[in-house]
Amino acid sequence: MNEETRMLVASAERLIAADYDFHRRQSLIREAGTGTVLAKWPEFSDLGWTALALPEALGGYGDASDLLHLVRTLARGLVMEPVASVALAAQVLSRLHAITTLDEIMAGVLTGSVRPIVALAAADSGYAPTFSGLVAQNNNERWQLSGGRSLVLDAPAATHFMVSATIDGRDNALFLVPADSVGVQLSSVSGTDDRRLGTLRLNDVNLPRSALLARGTPATALVEFAGDLATTLHCADALGAMEMLLDLTVEYASQRKQFGRAIGSFQALQHKMADMFMAVERGRSMFALLAESLTGDDTAVDFRRRVSMAKVEISDGATLVGQHAIQIHGGIGTTDELAAAHYFKRLTAAAVYGGDSRYHLGRYLSLR
Amino acid sequence: MSLYLTSEQVAFRDEVREFLATQLTDELRNAVNATTTVWVEKSKMLAWQQKLDAKGWAVPHWPVAYGGTDWTPMQHYIFEVECACAGAPELTAMGVKMVGPVIVRFGSDSQRNYHLPRIISGEDFWCQGFSEPGSGSDLASLQCRADRDGDDYVINGSKIWTTDAHHANRIFVLVRTKKEDRPQKGISFILVDMATPGITVTPILSVSGDHEVNQVFFEDVRVPRENLVGEEGAGWTYAKYLLGFERGGSLKAERLKQELARVERLLDSPACSGLDAFTRESIVRDVARIEIQLESLAYTEIRVISKLEAEGGEPGPEASILKVEFTEILQRITELAMSAMGPYGAVLAAERDDVGNTFADIKSAACSDMLPIVPRYLNFRAASIYGGSNEVQRNIIAKAALGLPS
């Protein structure tokens, strides 16, 4: 970690310690109701987090590895604001910055007033991003979009949706849709981790020509990249939650007494925690691999393969750490009132987001 | 930390590759491939050590003053990876990786001057006298005694699981020189010539019928006092230092990748052509899963190295993590290789000599890959036991890395 990254991580740690303790977090979730928690969003943009890893020419700073470190640190506090989701969309947009009409959007992202969210899944498309299920038609020099997008993480926070679509039943395309456009309908359900998963309906949404961000091969490449970067960010999130849950479990096991001794002195539990630690270490290694891949000069296929490797290892690790932590906590670990249970839920969701370990093992096999 | 190489590192890698291309013979490579135990056959190992020595690379991890190198951890990493990729023999650890570093760090000048060059040249071949019949993973409970008598120590007792004792001309032993309140106290580290009267070596055959380990008996074995390393009673400290090297001192991910490649070759061999699609597919899937674990292990290894480079010191609980990961993945690969053998997994390859070094009804190049599979599966059950069992390693992780109570 360089000095800049260290300071970034320290500022996130300070914020969590100062006002994101578990009870505060739970009340933020309650207050947000069916929305995405945005209570700390202005503070996050003041701290410059929304400008992270964006091109310097646009007013950004730091690199993709810094973004991974931030997401990992925020997950230690189970932070609910859509930092990763917005950063993901911004990263994709920044690859289109030659399009001048996006300047205003990017400026809004930097200040925190604009929150684009990527939506790439259809109801029946499984884990891989898809272009089907959403059709765009050219209509009098304007675009008309109809169809839907499913399981859109943090959708209620969106000011804009970045959607994959098919033009005239042929070309892959990527569109930017203002969330307040006429014909946009959004509903959402609670994810396992209490984040909101949106279902987006577009009913003849009429958009200007500039809404088309990319078409054909560039659109395919961008959507593929978006999917992989999303998975990368889920890996960083899972790692942070794994690290913290291990800490909480060790602390609990060191204090909780049964049979007249701290339960952490029992070898059966020590070995479970040693296994959790090794899973965390594997996660850290995969985190290093991802950071290196994003900031190095990996080819697209190398990046894809490495993302799948990382997600296999981290999904399996997240599951192991989550399950062992609950077992070691005992009955109390199965209740809603304990922080550990919410880390378990975050990890359960993170193991699925972006593809579970079976899916990515299959993808890895097809790419090796 | 990065696995992307700088231009200097690329130049170094090319130098290593050039060396391997010119010095590593098929005979040596085949010997590695045929190995059914931990270490390759002694004569082949020594032949390779001499080639490394000629280049100045036999003990790269030792200080320059004693014949080592001043490589950065990244250079060590590159060297290990390239050697593994090329299928070069690993040098038997007892001399170069165990007693060598202990003598460098804790030995007297005369011990350094005498022993270190002989380890490098291969003139001395060492074995390790730690485990005893009554003390397995609880190493500190050892009973083998060394009593002072004039200018000598007199050693009585027995050591077990002694790898290569039947080849070695020297042994380093942990012995009890004093009864103290704690078992870790009163242990000393002594260097012994195997030709000393009173030493007997009896073989222990492994489940596969291989002879690699032994029991060594000491009956009134008289050793001069100057063979003591460091201070009397401080042997436990030296042993822990040594075990750090044994457990985490080498980079194994690349070696395991070679081992996994063997499974893939097996899948393409005639012996496996009859495997049903479901079995084959599930093996392929497991191969891919292990490949990912190996990528993770490679990064863990390099993270440990980078940390040592940045902060100095010796590997602590990291050594335990690497030992557990390495041995458990190794065992998984041997299991997978057994699956890939299909019905031939039931053939004990100890029969190989009688059938002319090949399976009776399959004559193909695949046989050299198939022959060691069953013995390796059997023998490497010991991997999670030796060097401190994996349960002991998990105890260490729980205490040293997680700070859990006793």
Question: What tags apply to this protein structure?
Answer:
heterodimer; A: 368 residues; alpha+beta; eight-stranded mixed beta sheet; two-stranded antiparallel ribbon; globular; B: 406 residues; four-stranded antiparallel beta sheet; three-stranded mixed beta sheet; 13 helices; 48% helix
What does this structure look like?
- The complex is a heterodimer of chains A (368) and B (406).
- In chain A, strand 6 and strand 7 form a beta hairpin.
- With 368 residues, chain A is α+β, with helices and mostly antiparallel strands.
- The longest helix of chain A is centred in the middle third of the chain and has 39 residues, at 217-255.
- In chain A, helix 9 (300-329) packs antiparallel against helix 10.
- Chain A has helices at residues 3-19, 22-32, 41-46, 64-76, 83-94, 103-111, 217-255, 267-295, 300-329, 339-352, 357-367, and strands spanning 116-119, 134-139, 142-153, 160-167, 171-178, 184-190, 196-207, 212-215, 257-258, 261-262.
- In chain A, strands 1, 2, 3, 4, 5, 6, 7 and 8 form an eight-stranded mixed sheet that branches. A two-stranded antiparallel sheet of chain A has the order 9-10.
- In chain B, the strands form two sheets. In chain B, strands 2-3-7-6 form a four-stranded antiparallel sheet, with no helix packed on it. Chain B has a three-stranded mixed sheet with strand order 1-4-5.
- The A-B interface holds A 246, 250, 253-254, 262, 264-265, 267, 270-271, 273-275, 277-278, 281-282, 284-286, 288-289, 292, 296-297, 309, 312-313, 361, 364-365, 368 and B 1-4, 284-285, 288-289, 291-293, 295-300, 303, 321, 324-325, 391, 393-395, 397-399, 401-406.
